[in-house]
Design goal:
Elements lengths: L2 E6 L7 H14 L3 E5 L2 H7 L4 E3 L27 H13 L4 E6 L1 H23 L5 H6 L4 E6 L15 H22 L2 E6 L6 H10 L3 E3 L10 H14 L5 E6 L12 H12 L3 E5 L11 H20 L7 E6 L2 E6 H16 L3 H8 L1 H13 L15 E7 L6 H14 L3 E5 L2 H7 L2 E3 L27 H11 L4 E6 L1 H12 L11 E5 L15 H17 L6 E7 L6 H10 L3 E3 L7 H16 L4 E7 L8 H12 L4 E6 L11 H23 L5 E7 L2 E6 L3 H4 E2 L4 E2 L8 H8 L5
Parallel strand pairs: 1-2, 1-4, 4-5, 5-10, 6-8, 6-9, 7-8, 12-13, 12-15, 15-16, 16-21, 17-19, 17-20, 18-19
Antiparallel strand pairs: 2-3, 10-11, 13-14, 21-22, 23-24
Helix pairs in contact: 1-10, 2-3, 3-4, 4-11, 6-7, 7-13, 7-22, 8-9, 10-19, 11-12, 14-22, 15-16, 18-19, 20-21
Bound molecules: adenosine-5'-diphosphate.
Length: 737
């Protein structure tokens, strides 16, 4: 491959820019020329100036921008062979036969057709003399890598698609905002979100926003009298004291017979039957707008880099692949297979085979639907007469992590619905020591899905000495059968200590499950902990603003972020904000590193660079502090640039949890409660921690934790994200020319 073309097509999606930046810079770094095809397939069909080289600096400063800087369009001509013939002609004018195509399933269907027809189109062009035979011979095949840019997350080949996380941000922000006005006026709001054929945004939006009812295309209401059932439930909700009622509806929602369920119809039903003021909010294009989330920037960056790697390794007649992600790992799926599976869901829906459509969506989609069904209930199911009623305590420990409340709400609601008594421990382990424990009922966690902080209180104090005796007494007094600890390393370590004391205090011999919640993302047995995504977004938003503040000056920022000895937040925020250097504890900092960095800055600024951004993890090095590095750069930069330090501090821990954290908290806790219930029933006092690893939710025995965890550095011995360092480094380099 000598030359690579990149285009964005179809509906725009946040993160497309990050993908374009990664494609262009990764390719240039490998010595490959890069060409942008502007306005999607339209640019290919029109040719001329619409296909032109794109350089390293052309994709600078675009990570934080929504939309796509190379334009996107819908193009009917490309749907016809004649249009595609023109397109191929224009591509070959630039000798382009390697493409990265970023778009939705329409655009990628077009890509597949382009691939399939390519040899015949090339030969036709040669036969009618539009291109030379020599060119035709040189370009008998096209290589294509696809990246799914779609806010709907409606395509197979990736767990999540570029843009869907940001769209969820917009949806959840809207639902949070609407909830407060709905609560003030005791109104019902119907919120319509995008998704003609896929309920992902509606489902996850309702789960993360604490919606009270949700309509998705794949799973219409069971009963023909759904109107009555919905109104009964919402009416009960009012009686039980619920002030805000939010119904989330996907634009493609339908009933079992394929009739559309519109937001207008839902409003009429609610107004007529409940006689309540009902308002509709159609979110529309707001969902495509705004700055991309940290997750979308990093996802798209990794997919863009993977697309270039794939094309570099591709054989001459390699068929097209889509790049995707499966639990933090980049995957490749043949494009035809991804399209076939995507279209299969649509076909099943058209044939009203909704069970099959849901089956094809996969287990996590189905689980989410079931969880929502339970969470929206007004009251729990009454316990069966012969059911064992367990007493399960829930607590937080460690520093506050956004999403802790979401997790507690899930635990209380799912636990109560299973017939158990749920007890809230106040203020972490000191609360357990003091017996500060109270029963939590269904409505006690109303509104907690979206609330930042930790309503139960959380604390970094660990129990010691006689505290274990006091804990044993509390557990006995409250007849606690099992404990759910949602928190950070303090919580994990406290549980390990409790386990170590069990022979002395047999009452502590109960099953305990730890749910990872820490912004630092430094917990064992989990690739991601609840709170880290929110913190990352907090950092990235702050850095965006810091960067904007420097428009008129030549300046280097040294930004210090949290994470203790774990560089996750530093590395991921550096990748999402395009920082050129990241200092993390795992790598440390040496004086020669700093000298090298100063030299690079001086060279860069002498060549016209205007902004430098370095991100330093708070514990990167004891001596080379943020102030030290700032002072060093300032002194060495002389007249060339000035330096500002920004220590972001506690804003990183604050704010309402991001959609990702809310969804993660809900899923982890739902599994944890099931596991705890099983262990209590089996009288199995094993303690475990839960986490998502390699695409599945797994439990790790707490006894194995000391082996996997660096107890001194307080971070896992192996951290998956360390593999991403080279990509972050390459992409943020100054222009090689
Ligand atoms: P998205 O890519 O977001 O799903 P569209 O479905 O509108 O958006 O597709 C974008 C463009 O991709 C279309 O305007 C058209 O140029 C091209 N395209 C879509 N489907 C096909 C197809 N079956 N054959 C050829 N080109 C197609």
């Amino acid at each position: 491959m000598k030359r690579l073309g990149v285009l964005t097509s179809g509906g725009d999606a946040q993160g497309m820019n990050a993908a374009v930046r990664a494609v262009v810079r990764m390719a240039l770094d490998k010595g490959i020329e890069t060409v942008a095809i502007y306005e999607g397939y339209q640019g290919m069909v029109d040719g001329g100036d619409q296909i032109r080289p794109i350089g390293w600096n052309d994709v600078g400063g675009i990570l934080q921008q929504g939309g796509t800087i190379i334009g996107s369009a819908r193009c009917n001509e490309f749907r016809e062979r004649a249009g595609r013939l023109k397109a191929v002609h224009h591509l070959l004018e630039h000798e382009l036969d390697s493409l990265v195509i970023i778009g939705g399933d329409g655009s990628l269907s077009g890509a597949q057709i382009l691939y399939d027809e390519w040899p015949s189109l090339v030969n036709e062009l040669a036969e009618c003399g539009q291109i030379s035979q020599e060119i035709a011979d040189r370009h008998q095949h096209i290589q294509i890598a696809g990246i799914i840019g779609s806010i709907d997350n409606d395509m197979f080949g990736s767990d999540v698609t570029t843009g869907s996380d940001t769209a969820l941000h917009r949806i959840v922000e809207a639902i949070d905002a609407i909830s407060s006005t709905a609560a003030s006026h005791q109104r019902i709001f119907v919120v319509e979100v995008m998704g003609r054929r896929c309920g992902y945004l509606a489902l996850m939006g309702a789960m993360a926003g604490g919606g009270d009812w949700v309509f998705i295309p794949e799973n219409p209401p069971d009963a023909d009298n759904w109107e009555e059932k919905m109104c009964d439930l919402l009416h009960q909700g009012r009686e039980a004291g619920r002030r805000d009622i939010i119904v989330v509806v996907a634009e493609g929602a339908q009933d079992r017979h394929g009739n559309r369920i519109t937001s207008e119809y839902i409003k009429q039903v609610l107004e007529n039957r409940l006689e309540e003021d009902t308002r509709i909010t159609v979110l529309g294009h707001v969902q495509r707008g705004g700055a991309p989330s940290a997750f979308d920037r990093n996802l798209s960056t990794l997919l863009g880099a993977a697309a270039v790697d794939h094309l570099l390794a591709a054989t001459e007649n390699e068929k097209p692949f889509v790049m995707g992600i499966r639990s933090n790992k980049i995957t490749r799926t043949p494009l035809d297979e991804a399209l076939e599976k995507t279209h299969a869901v649509a076909k099943e829906m058209q044939a009203h085979n909704f069970a099959e459509a849901m089956h094809l969506r996969g287990s996590s989609f189905n689980e989410s639907f079931q969880i929502i069904r339970t969470m929206v209930r007004v009251l729990p199911h009454p316990p069966a007469p012969d059911q064992q009623r367990m007493r399960i305590a829930v607590m937080n420990a460690g520093g506050p992590a956004p999403g802790m409340n979401t997790a507690v709400r899930t635990a209380v609601r799912l636990g109560t619905d299973k017939g158990h008594v749920m007890l809230g421990v106040q203020n972490g382990f000191p609360g357990l020591v003091d017996g500060d424990i109270r029963e939590m009922d269904w409505m006690s966690v109303s509104g907690w899905a979206s609330r930042g902080g930790a309503e139960l209180g959380t604390n970094r104090t660990m129990p010691e000495g006689s505290d274990f005796y006091a804990i044993a007494r509390s557990l006995e007094e409250h007849k606690i059968d099992g404990l759910l600890m949602i928190g950070g390393w303090t919580g994990y370590e406290s549980v390990l200590k409790m386990m170590g004391n069990r022979h002395t205090f047999p009452a502590n011999n109960i099953p305990i499950i730890c749910v990872p919640a820490s912004i630092n993302n430094n917990l064992p047995g989990a690739e991601l902990s609840v709170g880290a995504d929110t913190a990352l977004n907090n950092i990235v938003n702050a850095v965006d603003k810091i960067k904007q503040s420097a428009v008129a000056s030549r300046r280097v920022f040294v930004v210090e972020v949290m994470g203790r000895n774990c560089g996750y937040l530093a590395l991921m925020s550096a990748m999402a904000s395009g920082a050129e250097r990241v200092y993390i504890n795992e790598e440390g900092i040496t004086s020669s590193n700093l000298v090298g960095d100063v030299k690079e800055l001086i060279v860069g600024f002498s060549k016209g660079k205007r902004l430098g951004l370095m991100i330093r993890n708070e514990n990167a090095n004891k001596v080379y502090t943020t102030a030290f590095i700032g002072a060093l750069f300032e002194e060495e930069g002389g007249e060339l640039f000035d330096v500002r330090e920004a220590i972001l501090g506690h804003l990183q821990q604050g704010g309402d949890p991001s959609p990702f954290d809310r969804i993660l908290a809900t899923r982890l806790t739902s599994y944890a409660i099931n596991q705890l219930e099983t262990q209590i029933a089996a009288a199995d006092p094993t303690c475990a921690c839960i986490g998502q690893i390699g695409g599945s939710l797994v439990f790790t025995n707490m006894e194995d934790v000391p082996r996997m965890f660096d107890m001194e550095k307080k971070r896992p011995k192996k951290q998956w994200w360390m593999d991403l360092r080279p990509i972050a480094r390459i992409l943020a380099k100054p222009s090689p020319h």
